[in-house]
Task: structure prediction
Amino acid sequence: MSDIAVDDPKTAERAAELHKEQTDVRRAKVDKMFAFLLIVEWIVCIIAAIVVSPYAWEGKEHVLHMHVWVAILGGAGITILPVMLAFLRPGTTLTRHVIAASQMLMSALLIHLSGGRIETHFHVFGSLAFLAFYLDWQVIITATVVVAADHFLRGIYWPESVYGVSNPEWWRFLEHAGWVAFEDVFLIWSCVFGQREMASAAARQASIEHISEQEQLKTAALEMALAEMGA
Amino acid sequence: MRTRSVIVAASIAVAAAIWVGTVAASYRVIQRFETTPGRAAAAPKSWPAESSLARNHDAPTLVMLVHPQCSCTRASLAELQAVIEKSPRTLRTYVVVYRPRQEKPGWEQTDVYTAATRLRGARVIVDEDGREAKHFGTFTSGQTFLYDAAGTLRFQGGITMLRGHAGLNSGRADVIRIANGESGKGSHPVFGCSIVGRSERR
Result:
């Protein structure tokens, strides 16, 4: 740990100000990254639905497959709120929690569109890692709760779609959530550690600013004294 | 400035309502789609004499009727592969692929057809205008029948657990059990596209 102790209250205040400013800038950037990512994922969902299952058939007649409608409308519904918040309320707590929930819902949509392929579940783990860019451990918790709720509710009403068997044990959702929690432990640690690193960097910057200010004052006083001596 | 804030807040509130509504509706629609079975078959209790498929007289014969354009049928074929792997080699398997007469040549040559041709020992038959489907009383893609050596129907239904979802299910287990010589009968809901068009249902 490389914490920098700041004794001067004014410097400590400046360090806190810099830390907040830098964290806000970082989080606003991550918000925009996720807005872009969600739009791309939405497009990918539509393309996947069109390629994998474009039509539902009744003999020689066909209609647009339900997957295509869900990809277009469901994907739009999931994407609209986080994208709006990312541009209208960047850097706020609400924005990043909505983004975390939406990203997990997008995972659920992708898993569904792929017919429950186990490989698509890796999207959940990748998304959690991306969410750690916020350096806010609470965002990881929100995403985990959404995944656990999705598995819990589907496990009750529709277990085949999530577990691959029709009569799983009641605690099976805990096993799935447990693997997510396994990753969470390290992501949460990295968020806390990252925040401390940022705070240290801000304290260093505030100290340098303070020293520089002191030097400038000394130089000015010296120049003034020299000027008086010359006069 | 204040007007802009009100507009932004109202837009976010509308987007939030859409977000919640869409998520709930999507779950409902997907659940309904995946868990609603297709129309069950009205299969003859004995091997249909009018069928052009040759029944195995020494071992069971399995027939699966599929719609080649039905994406959900990929899961049925994945399950059929598991059935073949766990059944005796004497099991005779037919995959009967629906093809409307007026469609262009090659209409039935889809990934479903290709997957069927890759099944070990399976005989893939193109069913012009669904004649065989009618003989077996089939309405839904993925419908599977297992007739024993005596020509008696022992299993009818689907072998997937949901529409488009492969995985352990009682339909597949029943077919494997009966194909391996166990007694009894079995049935299971079938999930897939309709082989019969709306106009032909009446």
Remarks:
- The interface with chain B takes residues 52-62, 65-67, 69-70, 73-74, 76-78, 80-81, 84-85, 88-89, 98, 102, 105, 109, 112, 115-116, 153, 157-158, 160-161, 164-166 of chain A (CB under 8 Å).
- Chain A is about 80% helix and 5% strand.
- The mean pLDDT of chain A is 90.
- The first strand of chain A starts at residue 55 and ends at 58.
